[in-house]
């Protein structure tokens, strides 16, 4: 992949859906995504160069006007229809589905959450870096004692002047050791289960933030646990108001559980087709793959709906 980053963006609004699809196919062919290197040793963080290459690829995507297809134009997107975003996912998957993977959290749900619940200052501060690869996001929601029950989190946030002082532990945070920022949910009122939560954007390199990678079954430290020890996060990093965290986090989860996984759902079709080519004439495998194909098509139909 060339390191030259001078890219002329095409006015996508002037293209028909078919022309847009052709343009994407040409762009993905001319700009192959970085490939994850072979594992060097179990537990080794050997992806630094890969992340750098992914940042460069994301920047090229942004310069070409192809990042954030459905994002509003005023925040760097194309303001395109959901169908255009789905066409992007289809062609991205056809090309292998690799480019931009580290930016899933930022592009697919942190960014949309900031657009929907952030101030204009916060949008201008974070959205450009999300699209162009300068800002890699992690999500710090889950905790050892709460799992996916976000209303049970205990990580505390105490207002001290212009800061929230955060103390607690998060776990299963994908790429937190490589992230620049994170979506962070904390409890600011221990007496209120839902109204006592606050949502903020935290700097992963702030004093008091410690990240411990967890080696996954792949052999790589893909997940992490993150410790906050009196980390001081500015109040102007809070999305919404103090105590609005449940509402804001629900918006994030709605993005994450619906449109964020569109690319993966579309990509499942490619996986099933690849498996079908390998099963030969085995009737049992053929029948099972047909069932899987039907399931994928049903999920895809729900996604389009």
Question: Key features?
Answer:
305 residues, alpha+beta, four-stranded mixed β-sheet, four-stranded antiparallel β-sheet, 8 helices, 8 strands, globular
Structure description:
With 305 residues, the protein is of the alpha+beta class. Helix content is 40%, strand content 17%. Strands 1-4-5-8 form a four-stranded mixed sheet. It has a four-stranded antiparallel sheet with strand order 2-3-7-6, with no helix packed on it. The longest helix has 22 residues, at 283-304. It is globular, with a radius of gyration of 20 Å.
Which percent range fits the helix content? 40-55%
Major beta sheet, specifics?
A: 4 strands, mixed
- Spell out the helices and strands N to C: HHHHHEEEEEEEEHHH
Instruction: Report the radius of gyration as a whole number of Å.
Output: 20 Å
> What strand order characterises the main sheet?
1-4-5-8
| Oligomer state of the chains in this structure | single chain
Discrete helix count: 8
Q: Name the structural class.
A: alpha+beta
Beta-strand portion reads 15-25%
- Distance linking N and C termini: 37 Å
Q: What average pLDDT do the residues reach?
A: 90
The residue ranges in which pLDDT falls below 50 over 5 or more consecutive positions are 1-6
Give the total of beta strands: 8
What coarse outline follows from CA principal-axis ratios? globular
Kindly summarize this structure in a few lines.
By secondary structure, the protein is of the alpha+beta class. The chain has helices spanning 17-30, 48-63, 82-94, 104-117, 120-132, 245-257, 262-278, 283-304; strands spanning 137-140, 156-160, 163-171, 181-187, 197-203, 209-214, 223-234, 238-239.
């Amino acid at each position: 992949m060339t390191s030259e980053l001078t890219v002329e963006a095409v006015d996508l609004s002037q293209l028909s859906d078919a022309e847009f699809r052709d343009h994407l196919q040409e762009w993905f062919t001319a700009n192959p995504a970085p490939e994850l290197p072979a594992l060097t040793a179990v537990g080794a963080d050997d992806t630094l160069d890969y992340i750098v290459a992914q940042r460069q690829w994301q920047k090229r995507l942004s310069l070409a006007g192809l990042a954030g297809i459905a994002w509003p134009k005023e925040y760097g997107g194309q303001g395109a229809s959901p169908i255009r975003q789905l066409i992007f996912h289809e062609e991205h998957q056809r090309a292998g589905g690799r480019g931009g993977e580290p930016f899933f959290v930022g592009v697919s749900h942190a960014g949309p959450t900031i657009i929907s619940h952030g101030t204009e200052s916060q949008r201008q501060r974070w959205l450009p870096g999300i699209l162009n690869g300068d800002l890699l996001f992690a999500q710090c929601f889950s905790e050892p004692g709460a799992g996916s029950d976000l209303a049970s989190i205990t990580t505390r946030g105490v207002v001290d002047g212009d800061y929230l002082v955060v103390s607690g532990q998060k776990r299963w945070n994908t790429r937190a050791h490589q992230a620049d920022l994170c979506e962070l949910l904390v409890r600011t009122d221990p007496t209120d289960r839902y109204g006592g939560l606050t949502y903020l954007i935290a700097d992963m390199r702030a004093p008091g933030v410690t990240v411990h990678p967890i080696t996954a079954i792949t052999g790589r430290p893909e997940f992490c646990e993150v410790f906050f020890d009196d980390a001081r996060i500015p109040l102007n990093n809070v999305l919404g108001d103090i105590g609005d965290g449940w509402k804001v986090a629900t918006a994030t989860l709605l993005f994450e559980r619906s449109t964020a996984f569109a690319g993966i759902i579309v990509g499942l079709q490619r996986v099933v087709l690849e498996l079908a080519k390998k099963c030969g004439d085995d009737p049992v495998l053929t029948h099972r793959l047909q069932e899987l194909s039907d399931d994928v098509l049903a999920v895809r139909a729900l996604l389009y709906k």
